[in-house]
Amino acid sequence: MNTSATSAPQTIKPWYKERWTWMLMVMPATAVVAGSVTMWLAVSSFDGLVADDYYKQGLAINQTLARSAAAQVEGLKAEVNFTADRVSIQLNARDGVKLPDTVVFTLAHPTKAGLDQKITLAGQGGHYEAKLLAPPGSARWKILIEDESRSWRLNGTAFLPTETQVRLDAADLKPVD
């Protein structure tokens, strides 16, 4: 008995009309598209947290610690007051320590370096005041006060604009062993 004579002839479809061919090609095509998107994101976005000169920055840490220790020796304390567009600093020191005529005030955003502000404040008797370059946005800002010769420094943090008054005390700094 011949069974092929009774069955209908089977037609062969071209490959591009087969459903399984396309389903098998979807997985590699998805990987190519996802890889392309990942490559585009890696090339077009800027990772501002990675420093090119990380080794030099690491070596500078000892100098920074020495400046903080110098502020402790001089007994420096600062009260920083913020208004909408101004900053004022009242700087105090131990008896016999001469306060500088100008200080450098840095307001640094923790993640966006483009928002940082560095201002030289002039004053007398430990009181310094200046206009901010731009009103600081809502964030936890790093504050740095130092003299122009960079022999000492005071640093701290403030959540602006909620905190309008911040106290920095060199005695609060813990020594590094």
- Which residue ranges are poorly predicted, with pLDDT under 50 across at least 5 consecutive positions? none
Major β-sheet, in short? 8 strands, antiparallel
What pattern of helices and strands is seen along the backbone? HHHEEEEEEEE
First-residue to last-residue Cα separation: 98 Å
Number of strands: 8
Task: Write up this protein.
The chain has 177 residues and is α+β, with helices and mostly antiparallel strands. It has 3 helices and 8 strands; from the N terminus they run αααββββββββ. The protein has helices at residues 19-44, 54-59, 61-73; strands at 77-82, 86-92, 102-108, 117-124, 127-131, 139-147, 153-160, 165-169. It has an 8-stranded antiparallel beta sheet.
